[in-house]
Amino acid sequence: MNASVGLERRSKIDGPRAAGVVAFTLFLTNLGTATEGYVGVDFFFVVGGCLTSAIFLRELDQKRFTFIDLYERRIFSGLFVILIATAVARSSDPPARLAVSGRGH
Question: Given its phi and psi angles, is residue 7 left (phi above 0), alpha (psi -120 to 50 degrees) or beta?
Fold first, then answer.
């Protein structure tokens, strides 16, 4: 059970979740067709949207929904990772190379 939002594990979505992982992995390893990667990502968006909507609706019913809590769970939880990944990617692609490749100003 997830203590932060009071959700139990939903084993019903393990199948679509696994199908998404397999489809995306096949796409990344060039073992499948080009569309499988998009299907895998679509599965993740659908499953994530369903779970997020269920949390949102339950909290609205219980009158304990706040946008601050939503942002803390969904935005701020991944913000640190995104900032670090951006800094690493930026440092590995110097501005001089960006200008030569046409991506810089």
Answer: beta
DSSP string, 54-93: HHHHHHHHTT---HHHHHIIIIIHHHHHHHHHHHHHHHTS
Q: What pTM, to 2 d.p., does this model score?
A: 0.49
The three-state secondary structure class of 6 is coil
37 touches 25 (CB < 8 A): no
3-state SS, one letter per residue, for 33-61:
CCCHHHHHHHHHHHHHHHHHHHHHHHHHH
In tens, the pLDDT along 11-25 reads 777 787 788 788 878
Low-confidence ranges of the chain (pLDDT < 50): 1-5, 104
